[in-house]
Amino acid sequence: MAVPDIHLRQITNWCEQRIPEHARDQVRVEHTVRGSNVTILEVRAPWREDFGPDWTRRPIAQLRHDGTRWWLYWPDRNTRWHLLEDVPAETTPAPLLDVIDEPGRAFW
In the predicted model, is pLDDT for residue 1 greater than 80? Predict the structure, then answer.
């Protein structure tokens, strides 16, 4: 099942607005899509030459679409995904993206 285009645009816009333009050479927020799952990533520039030229990518959150509703998941230290049980499913990803930015949440 594919992610609806309108929802993917919402997620793309949210990611682009997280980091000010002047800081994007050091850090970005991006997303990847696999099936009906969208993973939000923090992407950081290389900071040591001996680590190589690749940017590091750390999963922050995952949004899963079941065809009608979106669910929000968080990664543990082994990048195993867990449903955020205190957050109800939503028909669009926008309210779940707001949860990612809430103070006290374990995403950032």
Answer: no
